[in-house]
Amino acid sequence: MVAVGLLGAVLVTVVVVLLWNHGSVLGGAGLSGAWLLPGLVALTCLAELATVRVRHGDAVEELTLYEAAIIIDILLLPPRQALVAAGLGLVAASVVQRRGPVKTAFNVGTYAAAVSPLIGVVHLVGGTPGALTLGVLVGVLLGTVVFTAVNLCCLAQILGVVNGTSPWKIVRSEARLSGYMAVGTVATGLTTAAIGLHTPMLLPFMAMPALAVTYAYRAAAQEADERARSAYLLQLSHALAERDDVVRRFLFLVREAFDADLAVVVLEQAGIALSVDAATPGDLFSEPAPGYLTALSDVVGPTPVSSGLPSDVRQMMVVPLDSGGRRFGVVALAIRGRRRGRLSTRDLTVLTPLVNALAAAMRGAEHLDRLVEETSKLQAVVEQSTEGILMVDGDGVVQMWSRAFAELTDVPSAAATGRRLADLLDVPDAEERRLLLPLTADHPKAVVELTICRPDGEARRLRLAHSAVFSGDALVRDVVVVRDLTREHRTERLKSDFIATVSHELRTPLTPIIGYVDLLRSRADRMSTDKRRNCLDLIADRAAHMSRLVEDLLLASRMGDTDDDLALDVSSGTHDLAAIIRQVVDDLDSSRIRVDLANEAVPVRCDAGRAFQVVTNLVGNALKYSPSAEDVRVAMRLDDDCVHVDVSDRGRGIPADQLERIFEKFHRVEDPMTMSTSGTGLGLFIARRLARAMGGDIGVTSTLNAGSVFTLTLRRAGTSAV
User: Fold this and answer.
1) Which of the 8 DSSP states describes residue 316?
2) Which ranges of 264-315 does DSSP label H, i.e. alpha helix?
3) DSSP tag of 386
């Protein structure tokens, strides 16, 4: 951009110098002398030094009285000398202001390219009449328009590159201000030239129009700065409200808002300084806090600082970063020595509440982090708890539904949240249903028990510990801790059932024993030998029955809820399973038993005594649970590895949901209080455990009101476990 500008300026300047080599426009007034050119060079330099800064995003435009001085130069000097005065004055001002060489070159090229057409238009339209005529006035006006257009286009190109925006957009936004500047420039230049020619004594009074123009420039610049600052402050307020990467965003925005060279946040606890620099506007630097900033970390209030600073820093403002009685650090804005800008007391007044807002945001972020941490801990406790936890609001609508409670009720958390608790839990008992929310303001805590029915039909017994919060008489929320009592409830019932069952089973053989003992005591000497023997045989049989019952109880007590072969006294050998089955049939001595066995021996790996016990249990159960008129069939099937013994009955059958539970300890399909058959509920439990201990298993298939088939499977001799 600078190279193109310089090339264009050289071409236009050469044209002006070659074409216009006559006197000045107002030269006929008699002004001449060696002092005129140096004086106008000095005047042009002073006009350029009267600078007003206008911000355009990351770039800054400097408004000056340079254009007014150029009008005076053109009216009072020949074209070549006017160009010399404009160029030398601009270069002298750049030296005084310590502008960089690139900026100086761009300014010289831009103004040369704009001044040369201005000179050409003034001389073409107004000529050189030696007096301020209408033609001269029109030429100055038209030339100023050309000058302004060229200057604005060059400036828009540079600003477009710096800010990454369209130059045409900048031209449109700055056209009105440039027009106002052109009017002020023409008025000031023409008036000053005319007064200098005709009434030099009034020249000091020309300071007033110049000051007015300068004031207008500054008012425009201040308006532009306020607009830019308002935009940045709006972004800053949004950044503080969001509290996301707040310190970084604060630094970038506050540096832009106050047009500072450097913005720094010193974090006291970490001992580091986070900073953004105008030299590299897109970067955030993090480094140990420098000594001069550490020394300022104990300032009491907002403080302007001008001493004890690094050599390249001319001015600094420091504001404590305090909130809630805690100091997080300090915030500092700095202006470097090469800049003409300055941070004012008003800037410090505006910066202070922004820093306080940052401190409050940082404190809020800390509280939020702690809250999130505590909430995550609480959430982890809730999710990992084996007991169900739920929370409802004052209307009984679920606000929280823990994972454990979701598994307990078979209702997912997503489906439960936002629905009424009464609609989620199926409580069949109407009296228990009111216990879902049994609280009052006088009794905000309660522990209740109720039974629910899950969607899959399974009943669960629950204990609900309510802890509610009330506002007056209105329920605010209720936190409920739920414990599953189903197993305990079932265990208690099983215990009661077991006691009732065992009492019944023991009483059955005990009653005839006591009766016959009393009979023998009172009438033994009058009874025949055969009758006494029959009584004693019956007593022995009933005692043996009680012994087997006690043995089953002891054996069951040694068995846990999982397979544990070490608890069982089981040996392994080769035995004829067909012979064992025939012995069982002979001992049971029932005409209802029908057998289908192989004629030859069927050797299996088993404990003969335990195998006899298992088959006896299966055939005895089939006889017990079948109608007296129905047969029980015992059949044997062989395959390559196993022998299967099927015991079929024509009883009432077993429900599908009970097929596995009948092998549980003490479980009976019948209610023990209304049972029509005897038994402890241990036979099948022991039989399956013994079968598995011998390397086999017991299975069952059943059809309601049609009968059941129990199958004992054992390994054939010489094969591995099934």
Assistant:
1) E
2) 291-295
3) S
- Nearest CA to 24 out of 40, 11, 6, 4 is that of 40
**What pLDDT, on the 0 to 100 scale, is given for residue 79?**
78
| Tokens linked to 717 | 């001799």
Half-sphere exposure of 431 (CA within 13 A, CB side): 1
For residue 653, is it left (φ>0), alpha (ψ between -120 and 50) or beta? Answer: left
Q: How far is CA 119 from CA 42, 141, 182, in A?
A: 20, 11, 15
The secondary structure element, H or E, covering residue 475 is strand 474-484
- Strands of 504-586 (E only): list them: 573-576
Lookup: tokens for 18: 């070659």
Mean pLDDT across 69-89: 79
Q: Is 528 exposed, middle or buried (0-12, 13-18, 19+ CB in 10 A)?
A: exposed
- pLDDT top residue among 259 and 482: 482
pLDDT tens digits, one per residue of 307-351: 878 888 888 888 888 887 788 888 988 888 765 567 888 888 888
Residue 557: Cβ within 10 Å count = 11
Residues β-bridged to residue 232: none
Cα–Cα distance, 476 to 391 (Å, whole number): 11
State the DSSP string of 666-686.
T--SS-TTS-SS---S-HHHH
**Paired tokens of 713:** 């499977």
pTM of the model: 0.46
Question: CB atoms < 10 A from the CB of 368, how many?
Answer: 12
Per-residue model confidence (pLDDT) at position 643: 93
177 contacts 57 by C-beta, under 8 angstroms: no
Q: Which two tokens stand for residue 348?
A: 């410090």
Residue 368 one-letter amino acid: L
pLDDT score at 676: 46
Rounded to the nearest integer, the mean pLDDT of the chain is 78
Instruction: Kindly report the number of other CB atoms within 10 A of residue 223's CB atom.
Output: 12
Q: Buried b vs exposed e over 437-456: b needs ≥16 C-beta within 10 Å?
A: bebeeeeeebebebbbeeee
Count the neighbouring beta carbons within 10 Å of the beta carbon of residue 257.
24
User: Other CB atoms closer than 10 Å to residue 503's CB: what's the count?
Assistant: 12
Q: The sheet that has 262-267: what strands, in order across it?
A: 280-288, 272-277, 262-267, 326-336, 313-323, 303-305
Residue 309 is encoded by which pair of tokens?
Answer: 């600073």
144 conformational bin, left if phi > 0, alpha if psi -120 to 50, beta if neither: alpha
Beta bridge partners of 318: 303, 332
- Extended strands (E) in 580-659: 593-596, 603-606, 632-638, 642-648
pLDDT digits (tens, 9 = 90+) for 602-627: 999 998 888 888 898 899 889 888 88
What is the pLDDT, as a whole number, of residue 119?
79
CA 559 to the chain's CA centroid: 51
**CB contact burial 645-677 (16+ within 10 A = b; e otherwise):** bbbbbbbbbbeeeeeeebbebbbbeeebeebee
- Grouping H, G, I as helix, E, B as strand and the rest as coil, residue 462 is strand
Give 621-632 pLDDT, tens digit per residue.
898 888 888 899
Q: Which residue has the tokens 């107004």?
A: 126
Q: Are strands 632-638 and 593-596 parallel, antiparallel or unpaired?
A: parallel
Q: Which residues of 190-213 are buried (b: 16+ CB within 10 A; e: fewer)?
A: bbbbbbbbeeeeeeeebeeebeeb
φ, ψ for residue 529, nearest 5 deg: -60, -45
Asked whether 256 and 277 are in contact (CB, 8 A), the reply is no
Residues 6+ apart with CB under 8 A from 450: 427, 429, 432, 433, 435, 436, 461, 462, 464
CA 348 to chain centre: 37
CA distances from 331 to 41, 242, 301, 666 (A): 45, 20, 11, 78
